[in-house]
């Protein structure tokens, strides 16, 4: 198929969103709407993408994939005006069909894009409009067809007659244009309307008047027409998208006892016979193996989890977890943590930028940061790796089969050898060799009958102070 390119309109300020950020940055399932659109384009094989930005471009541009270039629309004077800003991009791609898409329409997917492109090319159209049938078309532009089924116009609801308002086929806001026609048509657009704006929909009327071929690619999925103008609309998009993802996981053999508070990224993959409890959120690129028990109230972000893991009421971000691992409740795996098979992370444990070998146990109330722990290590309650001196981070290493007693401080950088034993309450500032016992604490001194004398002295001091 002929290589296509795309123009994405993302200059809308989203005034009704009441946000300082562009509307296209509002998120559906933790993902900016603009990235839904760019990802669908890339999945459809469209790698030449021009994004039209407006105010707040400095927030939008960093999230765009490398395949995107940008042009600015300083004043928002309508969709036609936005495409005018991309004239040079269109001129550079005269041999390609030009898709024009809204940056806040997350459900115009690769399937409908390819369908529209195929139809556009096969029918040698100058304009192809992606449409949908809505049960309630209120607020949408209607597709007006002639008796032979050809598209005659797109009529906005405020301009529609009563019979036209009864039409259920609506404009999704997504189009495919012949590049030469698009450049020529942009020159003919006017702004003599109540809004004083240049409407892209007027190109359909121009094409019809010039006897150019106009097609409608009708989607069977009404979601392609959905966007969001305010927070309530954005919530609706999230609810629709999340139900799609929950249904997808159910089809894949994932178990839910209750979906309250469950939010699933479209980029999440979960193995069969895994259970996701209430309040579980999978954000970004998440891979979870089979036979896991996740939740309740667990957040996993951009991480990989092996088979047979139990993760309860915990937060995991940008980490890799092996198989048969137990985590939680109330634990935190911060970025760049790697846990081997069979590791145990108990309640109130924080791991950051560290590796733990297989079957190492960190049962409770511990911080491990910037460290490499081997396999079969027992880490007692209250152990802290002291990794920061106020200016730099330092790394420590603990060998296999070591025992780290309760309330131990490992002042990095230190190296604890394999099979070493650190006594409880120690502050370790020097390396401990393999098979050594390290004791680093003050020697206990017991003073017989000290308490009675202490109390008597304190009582006398109190009486003296009253007499003054």
How would you sum up this structure, described in words?
The protein has 468 residues and is of the alpha/beta class. The chain folds into two domains: 5-225, Alpha-Beta Complex (Spore Coat Polysaccharide Biosynthesis Protein SpsA, Chain A); 251-438, UDP N-Acetylglucosamine Acyltransferase, domain 1, CATH 2.160.10.10. The protein contains ten helices and 38 strands. It has a 15-stranded parallel sheet that branches. A nine-stranded parallel sheet has the order 13-16-19-22-25-27-29-32-35, with no helix packed on it. The model has no long low-confidence stretch (mean pLDDT 95).
Major beta sheet summary: 15 strands, parallel
Structural class: alpha/beta
Number of helices: 10
Which overall shape is indicated by the principal axes computed on the Cα atoms? elongated
* Rg (C-alpha, Å): 32 Å
What is the CATH architecture assignment of the largest domain?
Answer: Alpha-Beta Complex
Oligomer: single chain
Q: Return the average pLDDT rounded to an integer.
A: 95
Terminal Cα span: 101 Å
Could you name the ranges where pLDDT drops below 50 across 5 or more consecutive residues? none
Strand content: 25-35%
The beta-strand count equals: 38
Give the proportion of residues in helices: 10-25%
The CATH superfamily of the largest domain is Spore Coat Polysaccharide Biosynthesis Protein SpsA, Chain A
The CATH C-level class name of the largest domain: Alpha Beta
Q: Total domains, how many?
A: 2
Outline of the structure:
With 468 residues, the protein is of the alpha/beta class. The chain has ten helices and 38 strands. It has two domains: 5-225, Spore Coat Polysaccharide Biosynthesis Protein SpsA, Chain A (Alpha-Beta Complex); 251-438, UDP N-Acetylglucosamine Acyltransferase, domain 1, CATH 2.160.10.10.
